[in-house]
Design goal:
By secondary structure, the protein is mainly alpha-helical. It has 4 helices and no strands.
Length: 67
């Protein structure tokens, strides 16, 4: 599976849990776990909300396509 987002990494760096993020977004922990494991991807509006909650630039949540 292709890794597209870094949500899980940022949560670990900030010492936050997937449960915390699920509660903040009003989502199930199952859906957040799927995002963190790159099984599903959040829509751009949702990604922006996640970036705001984690106080990071939205680009930090994505894997660069250029090396």
């Amino acid at each position: 599976m292709e890794k597209i987002n870094r949500i899980k990494e940022i949560l670990v760096i900030q010492d936050r849990t997937q449960i915390w993020l699920a509660n903040k977004l009003g989502k199930s922990t199952t859906s957040i776990t799927a995002m963190c494991n790159n099984k599903t991807q959040p829509h751009l509006k949702e990604l922006k909300k996640i970036a705001n909650l984690l106080e990071v630039d939205i680009r930090e949540l994505l894997i660069s396509t250029k090396q």
